[in-house]
Amino acid sequence: MNTQTYNDAILELATAGLQALETYNATAKVKTASTQSHFLCHWMVTAQKNKQFSKLVANDLTLWIRQARSQGASVDLPAILLNISTQYRLISHKQQGLGARLTALLAELEQEDWIIIKDQRLSPNLKLNSHGQRSLVISEEEYLYHIQDNELIKPVTLYIRADLYTIASKALKHELLLTLGDKKASLIKHHKAYHIWPKNLAPKLALLV
Fold first, then answer.
1. Best exposed site among 56, 58, 75, 191 by fewest CB in 10 Å?
2. How far apart (Å, rounded) are the C-alpha atoms in residues 73 and 119?
C-alpha cells in the first residue's frame, strides 16, 4: 500500500490549481492579477469544502485562503502554485545523496566567504561574533551522526544568518529543500533555524524561491 507523502500532496494540489487557472484564463474576458487571485481563492475554498485534497495540505489551503481574502492579489496565488510545481518537480526523483549535496553546499558557501561551523556542540550560551558576515552553523553531533555514506539519515538543523531568498536559492541549486524552523527559538543569536529532511521529504511546505 502506497502512502502519499506531503511532497506528493502539495504537488497534486499545485498541479490541479494551475490546470484550473489555465482553463479559467482560456475563457475569461478579463485576466488580471486580481481576477486570477480571486478565482484561485474561490477554487481553493471549493476544494477545501469538498475535501478534494489530502489532509496533509489542509493547513496550506487554510492559510492561502485567509491571506487571499485579507490581502487580495498581493498574495499572488498563481506564483505560489507555479513555484511549488517547479521546485517539487525538480526534486521529485532527488531523494538520494542528500548528505553529499549538503557537503557540496557548505563548500560553495565557504568559497563565498561564509563562516561555516560544524565542529561545535550547540547550546543557548553559544555566541558567534560574525560582525554581520553571512554564516551557517550545524551542531557537531548532527553533522557527524545524521549523515552516513553521503546520505542524510535524520533531519539536520542549519542555523543561518543570511536573507531567506539567498539560502533557499543556493539550497535548491544543490537539489535540497529547506523548511523554516521555529521563528521564535534559535540557539544562536541573529540566526534563523532551517531544516533539511531525509529524501527531501519534509512534513510541511519548503521555502519557495
1. 58
2. 46
Residue burial 62-81, b: 16+ Cβ < 10 Å; e: rest: eebbebbeeeebebbbbebb
Q: What is the pLDDT of residues 88-104, one digit of tens each?
A: 999 988 889 999 999 99
- Residue 135 grid cell: 554564516
Share of the chain above pLDDT 70, in %: 92
Give the residues across from 195 on adjacent strands. 157, 179
Work out whether the CA dihedral 166, 83, 174, 198 comes out positive or negative. Answer: positive
- What are the pLDDT digits (tens) for 155-205? 999 999 898 899 999 999 999 999 998 766 666 777 889 999 999 999 999
Prediction pTM value: 0.89
**In degrees, to the nearest 5, what angle opens at C-alpha 183 toward C-alphas 67 and 68?**
5
Helix, strand or coil for residue 153?
coil
Q: Alpha helices of the chain — where are they, by DSSP H?
A: 6-27, 33-49, 58-71, 77-90, 98-111, 140-145, 164-173
Neighbours of 127 (CB within 10 A): 8
Burial class (CB in 10 A: 0-12, 13-18, 19+), 134: middle
